[in-house]
Amino acid sequence: MKLAFNHEDEAFRDEVRSFFDTALTPELREAGRKMTSVYSDREVALAWQKILLDKGWLVPSWPREYGGTDWSLTQRYIFACERARARPPALSPMGLSMLGPALLGRGTQTQKDYYLPRILSGEDFWCQGYSEPQAGSDLAALQCQAIRDGDHYVLNGTKIWTTHAHVANRMFCLVRTGRFERPQQGVSFLLVDMEDPGVRCEPIRFVSGCATQCTVYFDNVRVPVTDIVGKENEGWSVTKYLLEFERGGGAAAPGLLEAIGHARNLLAALPEAERRDPSRRLDDLEVRVHSLELTELRTLAETERTGSPGPASSLLKIQGTELSQAISEVAVELIGLYGMPHQPEAYELGSNVPPIGPADGVTAVPFYLNNRAATIYAGSNEIQRNIISKAVLGL
Ligand SMILES: Cc1cc2nc3c(=O)[nH]c(=O)nc-3n(C[C@H](O)[C@H](O)[C@H](O)COP(=O)(O)OP(=O)(O)OC[C@H]3O[C@@H](n4cnc5c(N)ncnc54)[C@H](O)[C@@H]3O)c2cc1C
């Protein structure tokens, strides 16, 4: 099988490529290159978000009337490929790729009219409050409680591992509003103001040195009843819909192919005597990424047809994260001893501290360490395998 673009698609690819070439400032390029985590820091992400918004390319998959494009499936994929090639800072997906589609699918008209423009402008920076100290994989065990008091819910409890909670002004979260035989019943989906005086965040420091996740404490936080998405006690269906977008529906393969290319370049940047040859492993990984690419294209087609990626998103999550970890492992092996110094000052934005070892290798170890979490967050890969066995294989 040969996948080839037609002339129109090629012209579109050239247009996108030239946009990335001109729109990415040296500072934004540096931020993209020096990312050690999955997403960029808030300020740099918002700077890039504004450029995409002005161009009209921030949320290609949203309906046009809400700021989306009417790009074909092929055009969306071309855009993802060109973005991976250009390596811009990665935008936070919480508002743009998770809550936005959930509101489009399940929100009231008032919620759409109020929140969607604020997601696009960056005025609202969202985090996702699902996990709790005793409810991770078994999310339905969540205990964070919201009790109705007139026109408000009063929220008490704890969320954990909440990415970007310390820099977000809004959180979409799952809370318990009722107790029924099935724990999934009695869960509601609320939109919380993080600036409420009852919200407290404590960042959690990871092995890489980063502190991007937080524990969040709610002490009598008041949420207007108009900020519930879906009906009371029926938030689980909103969550299931949203999680499909978190776990798939995107295009990981183009970025993984870039990461393989980056590992090959890293090899060339090393002194000859220090080069190990991982080409067989990289070739093997490249073949696996190409097979992921075909599955992603099939899933994109399915999303375009049905409006949601469905349970195949679990399969994409497993493949994408395991391949990403395998590639980052090769990168760490490649740089060898140069990976040992702890040198965060060398990948700080705007820093002119010369790195020890090849410049492109300074982020290999922190990225590898942060990337250990990829098979855990967004629902661990073991849980994704459970979902596939039930929903796809019918076991
Ligand atoms: C970097 C990072 C960012 C995160 N960001 C967010 C965020 O923004 N918002 C948010 O709400 N959460 C976030 N999380 C939390 C994440 O979703 C949970 O860590 C994850 O769901 C696992 O839950 P847990 O940590 O409680 O582990 P547990 O559920 O206690 O699981 C421990 C281990 O047991 C395995 N296991 C558990 N149950 C089963 C089963 N039934 N079958 C097979 N194996 C099982 C798991 O796979 C795992 O290996 C983040 C986590 C990390 C590490």
Q: Can you tell me about this structure?
A:
The chain is an alpha+beta fold. The chain has three domains: 7-91, Acyl-CoA dehydrogenase/oxidase, N-terminal domain (Butyryl-Coa Dehydrogenase, subunit A, domain 1); 126-236, Beta Barrel (Butyryl-CoA Dehydrogenase, subunit A, domain 2); 248-392, Up-down Bundle (Butyryl-CoA Dehydrogenase, subunit A, domain 3), CATH 1.20.140. The chain is built from 13 helices and eight strands. The protein has helices at residues 7-23, 26-33, 42-55, 73-86, 93-106, 109-121, 235-247, 253-269, 279-306, 312-335, 344-347, 364-371, 381-392; strands spanning 126-129, 145-149, 152-163, 170-176, 187-193, 199-204, 213-224, 228-229. Strands 1-4-5-8 form a four-stranded mixed sheet. Strand 6 (199-204) and strand 7 form a beta hairpin. Helix 1 (7-23) packs parallel to helix 4 (73-86). The longest helix has 28 residues, at 279-306. The mean pLDDT is 92. The structure holds flavin-adenine dinucleotide (FAD). The site of flavin-adenine dinucleotide has 19 residues, from strand 1, strand 3 and helix 13.
